Amino acid sequence: MHNINTHNLGYPRIGEQRELKKATEAYWKGNLSLAELEATGRHLRKTNWLKQKQAGIDLIPVNDFTFYDQTLDLSCLLGNIPPRFEWPGGDTTLDTLFTIARGTQPASTHACESCTPTASVSTFASEMTKWFDTNYHYIVPEFHPNTQFQISSRKIFDEFAEAQALGINAKPVLIGPITYLTLGKSQEAGFDPFDLLDSLVSTYEQIIKRLSATGAEWIQLDEPIFALDLTPTQLDDLQDAYRRLASVRGQTKLLVTSYFGPLRENLPHFHALPVQALHFDLVRGGEDLPDILTSFPTDKILSLGVVDGRNIWKNDCEQSLSQLHDALKTVGPDRLWIAPSCSLQHSPVTLNNEPNLDAELKNWLAFADQKLEEVVDLRDLLTGSGSNEKLVANRAATQTRRTSPRIHNPSVKTRLAEVTPADFDRTSPFPKRQQLQHTKLKLPQFPTTTIGSFPQTAEVRSARARWKKGQLSDTDYENFLKAETARCIAFQDEIGIDMPVHGEFERNDMVEYFGEQLEGFAFTSNGWVQSYGSRYVKPPVIFGDVSRPKPMTTEWSSYAQTLTDRPMKGMLTGPVTILQWSFVRNDQPRSTTAHQIALAIRDEVLDLEHIGIAAIQIDEPAIREGLPLRRNDWKAYLDWAVKAFRLSAAGVKNDTQIHTHMCYSEFNDIIAAIAGLDADVITIETSRSNMELLDAFVDFQYPNEIGPGVYDIHSPRVPTVAEMENLMHKAEALIPRRNLWVNPDCGLKTRGWDEVKTSLIHMVQAAKNLRQSIPVTQA
Ligand SMILES: Nc1nc2c(c(=O)[nH]1)N[C@@H](CNc1ccc(C(=O)N[C@@H](CCC(=O)N[C@@H](CCC(=O)N[C@@H](CCC(=O)O)C(=O)O)C(=O)O)C(=O)O)cc1)CN2
Ligand code: MET
Ligand SMILES: [Zn+2]
Question: Domain span at residue 190?
């Protein structure tokens, strides 16, 4: 009984040592040639395929590699290049890809060493947004009534040939057509991207024919939208599209995957797809299993994702085996495949480069490479050829994680149990607080501020790296950071930023920084995961009850406040974001962990207020990303998420101004919850969408103060004064002047000082012009 296949949906492309990031950024800077960049790509692909093969994975994904983002790769494959880039047609190049992702500067004012201008006009990058409820961001496809599709990239074909040449049993992977259309955005009011379905499916037909002609036995089409609420039209379109694709597949077989959640009422439609294999995520969609098995079609292969592709806990073998046994009874060994739940791109690469994790904790974890071993071990255990020792060891690890005293802290549990309803509320409602804050802060109209971080230059990162390696003493590192902070504050003072920040130079990543100072968290040395493009994160691991042993930011804030007379904004990360951007324990509800974190942040907020900080920002950029994929599940989540924020913020006096910040989100869906946070000021990302995001705030008559971002910090482009003024005029047509702030979209950590300086000088000038302008009355 050896027929049970193992396969993988996607493997992290970044390299064990972030080779992909380093090469891509070097290419952007002009320090690496295109040929060298491509060679790095080939090397990474080969390494990753061979690793999977050696682990014993039977079918290995191809085209999961990308130099930026797989959705953008697909747009290039389909020739769907936004018209503003004036793409001449033919095959898209790597520079086409990078240009769409990063935008271009006008050649004449181009002052940045890190981007490659290709157009003579300044062109906005495409929007970027969260991939479902993950911390991965994809480049949003743009659809126009006259969008046309035609094969415009050789990448998937070349990579398939490359894998074949290496003797890899390769399975090309693509995002499916319905997911692609659903995730894109119409560029014209009233235009429905699904009008393009017919032409899109024709191009998919050609792609499939071509792959089939070159010997692809399987093609994987990802349709994670099956985990969303779907309309009858989408469900019909799915059947139609796959009927057409099935009719051209030739010898090739199609695998359609769903992941990230249960299929629920979509299940019969999924079962009905005219394809040869279906994949289910049993980690997030385990509730479906009985229904899947009851009605599973007799002509299809059942692929079960039992190993969590998105979290780092070791698989509970016994639980997985019990699910697999049920499936085996139903479909038999020839029709059962075993896999991770979703692509492993959301997991760090390997535990092998983690010398600093202690043995007990390490024994609770599995990263991508270990997950592949788990998939193969499960297959062996299921077929009776596995080692019993492995099962015994797995059981022991699961058991110690349940009971270890490192995980359970009674005083944290008691404190949470004793929280009262009053702990969630500010003393007075917003209008009263606003008055008191205006009196205390004495800010001008259209006050200017930034979102917190300033450029994390090579110098800053290298100083931190040397300090971590012991090559720089604590004192030297601290003095270095103090000098950076002082310079940053002097700059803000000089150009007239009304509410300065200290610049966050002491932080590696916001979440990692707080994680490192809280009990119940562990952190890795090399556990990087791609967030977007060349930007990666190293999420902390929340393994136990959370508490704050001592103040975390007060020293930096009080030092910063001594350097300026203007009110300094304290800078914290909120409980939902810390939760969302960490690997979270799966042995208690996420809400409980969030509320434990909230109490730790609350203590920090009160300490900042105590040392005289008059405004405190509690960032919650991830609150939207945490929203469940199904509407039915929203309310429960929003209730505890909003309560977590309020618990962290509500302890302060009326005249202490609480800010929050959000980015990369559509707010329409959750505007009531955002208002429910009751932050005095919210700064949000709006510039790439041309203030569109403000509509939600207007429709809802959002009562508190808002800083709609006027400077897109994801691109090296320097915005002009007029452009930012115009954006604010748009905002002022919607929101009363006294409630408006002027600020960038997000933190400046990824930018260079040259661009930041000019951009912020422009921004302050825009605010000054606005103060001189005649107030606009709202429509
Ligand atoms: N967790 C998280 N999620 C988020 C965001 C965020 O800020 N944090 N922002 C949104 C967008 N996502 C982003 C994700 C990452 C980065 C980012 O800038 N990442 C940095 C890494 C940040 C970091 O942890 N830096 C460390 C390590 C830096 C490093 O690479 N050090 C070098 C040494 C440098 C030297 O010697 O010169 C090395 O280890 O090799 C530090 O500063 O200490 C990067 O990829 O470059 C930005 C935005 C949404 N999700
Ligand atoms: C991703 S939101 C970032 C907020 C943070 N305060 C910063 O400026 O970097
Ligand atoms: Zn942000």
Answer: 5-17+42-81+126-346+357-403
Contact 755, 718 (CB under 8 A): yes
- Give the ipTM of the model, two decimals please: 0.95
For residue 275, give both structure tokens. 């394809």
pTM for the complete prediction?
0.93
- What is each CA distance from 384 to 3, 102, 392, 702, 734, in whole angstroms? 12, 52, 15, 61, 67
Following DSSP, what letter does each residue of 248-295 receive, concatenated?
A: H-TT-EEEEE--SS--GGGHHHHHTSSSSEEEEEHHHHGGGHHHHHHT
Q: Does the Cβ of 511 fall within 6 Å of ligand 1?
A: yes
Judge whether 684 and 659 are in contact, CB under 8 Å. Answer: no
- Residue 500 placed within a domain: yes
Among residues 429, 428, 451, 447, the alpha carbon closest in space to that of 438 is found at 447
- Is 87's pLDDT higher than 50? yes
- Which 8-state DSSP code applies to residue 413? H
Distance 597 CA to ligand 3 centre (A): 20
Q: CA angle, corner 585, sides to 604 and 262, nearest 5?
A: 120
**Mean pLDDT on 361-379:** 98
Q: Is 460 in the pocket of ligand 2 (CB under 6 A)?
A: no
Q: Which helix (H) or strand (E) holds 603?
A: helix 590-610
User: Could you give the CA distance from residue 158 to residue 775 in angstroms, rounded to a whole number?
Assistant: 58
Query: Which atom of ligand 1 is least distant from the CA of 747?
Result: 7
Could you give the number of structural domains in the chain? 2
Assess whether 659 carries a catalytic annotation.
no
CA dist 388 and 302 (Å) reads: 26
CATH number of the domain that residue 253 is part of: 3.20.20.210
